[in-house]
Amino acid sequence: MRQQLFIRSQPVLLQVVTDDDFDLDTAEAVCSDEVLLLPEDVLELVVGLVDKSILSRQDRAGCTRYRLLDPTRQYGRQRLHESGEGDLLRRRHRDHYSWLAERAEAKWFGPEQVAWNERIYAEHANLRMALEFCLIEPGEARTGLRLAGALWFCWVGGGRVAEGRYWLDHLLARATEPSRERAKALWTNAWVATMQGDTSPALIMLDECRDLARSIGDDVELTSALCVSGYAEHVRDNQQRAVAYLEEALAREDAAGQPSAVTVVSRPILASTVLLLGDCERARALCEECLAMRDAYGVPWSGSWALWVLGLVAWTEGNAEQASSYARECLRLKQQLNDLVGMAISIELLAWSAVDQDAESAARLLGASHTLWREIGRPLFGFPPYVARHRASEEQARMVLGSRAFDVAFEDGNSLTCDQAISYALGESRDSRVLTDHHRQPCKGFSRITCQASPADWGNPDTLGWPSVRLQRARH
Predict the structure, then answer these.
(1) Could you tell me which residues come within 8 angstroms of residue 286 by beta carbon, excluding any fewer than 6 positions away?
(2) Taking the complete model, does pTM exceed 0.85, yes or no?
(3) Which of 55, 157, 253, 355 could form a cystine bridge with 66, CB 3.0-4.6 A?
(4) Do residues 285 and 315 lie in contact, with contact meaning Cβ atoms separated by under 8 Å?
(5) Cα–Cα–Cα angle for 405, 407, 412, nearest 5°?
(6) pLDDT at 124
(7) Are residues 153 and 102 in contact, defined by beta-carbon separation less than 8 angstroms?
(8) Residues contacting residue 156 through CB under 8 Å, at least 6 positions apart
């Protein structure tokens, strides 16, 4: 009987994942049926497959994971199809990863933020498989919206901006009925779109989200929508309206008596907004309040944005050295969380701060930031004040160096890989040699999404449409 169980279960186990490795929890959740195969039997099955060299084992980040060779995976896929259990197993797989995503979201606002960020990164292929199932299978789009919405912190704060836009756009187009899942997906997608500089559709989504949240009486999603509305208006350069939205969101947070990962980050967004309105002291106070909440709740992501705005305050006040210090501290946290947008804008601030003292370094940093923005969308969100600062720094560095020397330094930075660019920005490496093969390697994430945007993006952000994106399956 045990041998029959092993033979029956082997093809099922081999289809647990498609393109990556998996852990024992996943195998137990997907393969056990509580009748013929109990969860404790799965461990014996996995050990047997490892002994037979069907599975390879790897310990990574304190977790044991298993991997199949591609030919073996194809064999398992065929056997699973023949068994007629494919749909059942894919639904179990989807349910397990929906549960995991929601658990990660809950844990992400707390001291385990970095650990859960890494856990979700390790599961990227499985999460994609679950999202693909929801997108393709009839009647599953609403479940897909719930999963994609729970992963908002991945799309917004974990370096997966363009991929998040891909899933959310497609799932929202399929699941159009009013629901809490749709409300959450709307503000999540609006946040992602705004980070890409695509504010027009973001504002439309936010209008629908606020109306929907009010109609279904969902205060949580309404508060989140107000936060993101403030951010979108900020990037749109409508600062007074941004202040109104953000202050309303924070008032609702105060009434609820409990912050969230979304409302906490509203403070540095509001700080950036009031700074543009000339209120440096309030901007500084909001950032300090956010940093205090970082210490109280153990949430580095929102604190990293507070550090960035404090750097911007210092730069505005003419203290380039302090601005660089804040930017580097922010960049270290962004690197730890794989926040691609945060890394790009931190390197930008370092370039602005360096231009008076080291024009060559500033030119190289501007080139490095351009490489990162290529993975996201419009450089600097297409935000006119920041684009103007970028161009002013570029013009100043070009004037000091001369056009030829500036172009060499800029292309040098533009040819660095993500890790090399960060190392250079942090002062860990001053090697300025251009890579001979001009190979550009994206930061780790769910996949590489190429944004087909030209260098003209720096010139006139108002006339640019949303860059086309191409989803490339790749392992990182």
Answers:
(1) 267, 268, 270, 271, 274, 306, 309
(2) no
(3) 55
(4) no
(5) 95
(6) 87
(7) no
(8) 164, 188, 191, 192, 195
pLDDT beyond 50 at 10: no
Q: Residues 387, 342: contact at Cβ < 8 Å? A: no
Residue 317 has pLDDT above 50, yes or no: yes
Terminal C-alpha separation, the chain: 41
Identity at 118, one-letter amino acid code: E
**DSSP code of 417?**
-
- 385 burial type by CB count under 10 A (0-12 exposed, 13-18 middle, 19+ buried): middle
Give the span between the Cα atoms of 269 and 381, in whole angstroms. 14
- Res. 457: pLDDT tops 50: no
Summarize the confidence of residues 263-289 as an average pLDDT: 97
Would you say 93 and 131 are in contact if contact means Cβ atoms under 8 Å apart? Answer: no
Tell me which range, 84-88, 116-120, 359-363, is most confidently predicted by mean pLDDT. 359-363
Instruction: Please tell me the predicted confidence (pLDDT) of residue 59.
Output: 77
The pLDDT score that the predictor gives to residue 442 is 45
Task: Report helix, strand or coil for 349.
Answer: helix
* Long-range Cβ pairs for the range 82-89 (8 Å, 24+): 82/11, 83/8, 83/11, 83/12, 85/12, 86/15, 89/12, 89/15, 89/30, 89/31
Encoded amino acid at 364, one letter: R
| Strand arrangement, sheet containing 22-23 | 22-23, 63-68, 55-60
Count of Cβ atoms closer than 10 Å to residue 139 Cβ:
9
pLDDT in tens, 26-65: 777 777 666 556 667 777 777 777 777 777 787 766 677 7
Amino acid code (one letter) for 451:
C
- 261's tokens: 């990962």
3-state secondary structure of 257: coil
Contacts of 148 (CB under 8 A, 6+ apart): 131, 155, 164, 167, 168, 171, 185, 188
